Amino acid sequence: MKRVHAVLMARLREFYRDKTGLSWNLLMPFLILVGFSFLFDDQPSAVLSIGILADSDSVELQFQGVDLVEVTDKETGILQVQRHQLDMLLEPGSPGHYWTNEYSNKSAIAEQLLLSKGALADSTLVRESVQGESIRYVDWVVPGVLSMNLMFSCLWGIGWVVVRYRKNGVLRRLQATPLTALEFLSAQVIARLIIVVVVTLIVYTGAALILDFTMRGSHLALALVFFLGSTALTSMGLLIAARLKTEEVADGVLNLLSWPMMMLSGVWFSMENAHPVAQGISQMFPLTHMVNAARRVMLDGVGVMGVIWELGLLSLITVVLMLLSARLFRWS
Questions:
Q1: What is the rounded distance in angstroms from the CA atom of residue 297 to the CA atom of residue 191?
Q2: Residue 154 and residue 112 share a domain
């Protein structure tokens, strides 16, 4: 433990003495969140959006200004009505149902429009009402941006740094000491986790004060999601750095891995309507499960048990990648 502690403290001192790197870790997520809060206003669209729980062709609604959306899952559709992402949800059938949002003016307009056109005249359609405030884009994107910042910090803070140590001969000198590969890797993981926990707490608190974003769930659940997500991504960074010898190659590999993760993990946009192949690839990334779990905690209000599957999966990814990293690690 003394050897692990010595390497841990050396890495922490190296980080906080690098004022440029420290400033970038704190400022980048703030700039992204504040920028999106200004770029995307919260004014409602003029088009009504109506979800259909069936093949859209089976419902003849040809109204100007009405956008029909096929919905495959009832619970998801109801949740979208609550969030004002859909103005109404229709479930054709006998008996059928339709859902409106009591807090949405557009929902009331959609219902009146369909009533006036006789589209809801069928007595078998049962009216259901839900309640829910509109979700701003900045509320939706905050979990993704926080997770993305963790991804970059974990991958580059571990992968690039370890490769630099190898190139500069630091690892070769450490090899001459009693320090084992597992001890060295463990110290790097602990140091990175301490750094990301402190930085994320500062960023989260600052963003909450500036943007007043939605947080409906358990802070404990959110902390566990970010912590275990960070361990999984840190272990991935260690695996990448296990044998690479130059920072240039490490940069290329890290970019090759991080950009698909950032684009396909639901950071900026939902993957619900993406190609099935893209959806399948996204499930291979730990960032996907961290973003989905964080979003459910913050927007849907779930607790620890609501994200237990993601927490278990992230833990499993961490163990597997750490064992592989220790197995493949080379000092020189």
A1: 27
A2: no
CATH number where 105 lies: 3.40.190
The pair of three-digit structure tokens given for residue 294, joined into one six-digit string: 């964080």
Domain that holds residue 275: 2-39+136-328
Helix (H, G, I), strand (E, B) or coil at 60: coil
Same domain (yes/no): 88, 203: no
Same domain, 112 and 149: no
pLDDT at residue 325 tops 80? yes
Of 315, 318, 15, which Cα lies nearest the Cα of 160? Answer: 15
Q: Which of 75, 95, 130 is the last residue of a domain?
A: 130
Torsion angles phi and psi, residue 98, rounded to 5: -145, 145
The order of strands in the sheet holding 96-101 is 66-70, 48-52, 88-91, 96-101, 125-130
Kindly report, residue by residue over 74-124, the tens digit of the pLDDT.
888 888 888 777 888 887 766 677 888 887 777 777 777 777 656 555 545
Q: Which residue type occupies 223?
A: A
Pairing, β 66-70 against β 125-130: unpaired
Q: Is the pLDDT of residue 33 over 80?
A: no
Q: What pLDDT, on a 0 to 100 scale, did the predictor assign at position 56?
A: 46
Cβ–Cβ under 8 Å, residues 81 and 62: no
Q: Quick one: pLDDT at residue 162?
A: 87
**Contact (CB, 8 A) for 259 and 155:** no
- Which of 112, 130, 148 is the endpoint of a domain? 130
User: Crossing angle for the helix pair 308-328 and 219-241, nearest 10 degrees?
Assistant: 20
Number of domains in the chain: 2
**Are 261 and 319 contained in the same domain?**
yes
Closest CA to 274 of 287, 290, 260: 260
Structure pTM? 0.71
